[in-house]
Design brief:
Length: about 290
């Protein structure tokens, strides 16, 4: 099925792109890697009057590390994340998550900004940004807005982006020496969207116990979900898989899974407990290795 007709623009600068987006407001859609937008156009799930191709905007491809913060331009490809190119190596969690996205063709074209702005609740990268307490840099003609990840993801395929704005970059903290991270997911086939994915970040104290933990899940609600109750419960515990399994067994989770053709809500809840325990254990092991090597 062909897409509905639309007007195509390829601006050469960020200012030109923002001018076009501002002029057309909600009738315009930015095009980054095209791995989500093109299928949606073809299926007529979206019908923009204007498509603004961001491909020439080299200023959205930069990666900077400064004062413990990694700033990643919205047009940085999944493949660069997966390989940990340059300063991206400071965030191994991105490489783990990116390796699970689609296939090599999708990763070669898809962008971090496109994934975050698309806000699919089953996608890995939104959960990573949520687990890391990242912030999103939004640009419009009125200037720049910096939005915490907890406020950026509003609902299914819905974000805090306003008409005329685009996502310019994401900022993530660089993890310390005693901090490790991990992603665990269950999908029907390799490269599919996760039925459930768990992202964990664990910091160990000098005795090897959990000093702090952050957990975000994908596939269990309309947005990536943080498990704040689990994060509090694991503090002070021995970081073993069995410990995490026991803590999660029967514990109410702050999730809203649906029944759908892929899985029941009960199965998603079961997966959330299993994958969270595994992700916490792997993250703790990574933290112990980083502490030993520091």
């Amino acid at each position: 099925m062909p897409a509905v007709p639309f007007e195509y623009h390829m601006p050469r600068t960020l200012t030109e792109a923002l001018d076009v987006l501002h002029a057309h407001g909600g009738d315009a859609k930015p095009l980054a890697g095209g791995q989500s937008l093109i299928p949606m156009l073809t299926l007529r799930l979206v019908r923009p009057a204007v498509v603004v191709d961001l491909h020439p905007l080299e200023e959205l491809r930069t990666v900077r590390r400064d004062n413990g913060i990694l700033e990643i331009g919205a047009l940085v490809r999944h493949r660069a994340l997966e390989r940990g190119e340059g300063a991206l190596g400071a965030c191994p969690l991105l490489a783990q998550a990116a390796s699970l996205i689609g296939n090599v063709r999708v990763r070669t074209l898809g962008t971090i900004g496109g994934s975050l702005a698309h806000a699919d609740p089953a996608a890995e990268l939104p959960a990573v940004v949520r687990a890391l307490d990242g912030t999103l840099v939004l640009r419009g003609l009125a200037g720049e807005r910096v939005v915490p990840a907890q406020d950026f993801f509003v609902g299914i395929l819905t974000t805090a982006l306003q008409p005329g704005e685009l996502l310019a970059a994401v900022r993530l903290p660089v993890l310390g020496a005693r901090v490790g991270s991990a992603v665990e997911e269950f999908s029907r086939r390799a490269g599919d969207f996760a039925i459930v994915a768990a992202v964990a970040v664990v910091e160990l104290d000098t005795l090897g116990r959990v000093a702090r933990a952050r957990v975000a899940l994908a596939g269990v609600g309309p947005t990536p979900r943080r498990l704040s109750g689990v994060e509090r419960a694991v503090v002070g515990e021995e970081p073993t898989l069995e410990t995490f399994r026991q803590l999660l067994s029967g514990r109410p989770l702050e999730i809203e899974p649906d029944n759908d053709i892929h899985a029941s809500a009960a199965f998603r809840t079961h997966l959330a407990r299993v994958l969270t325990a595994r992700a916490l254990a792997r993250a703790a092991t990574a933290a112990a290795g980083r502490a030993a090597g520091s």
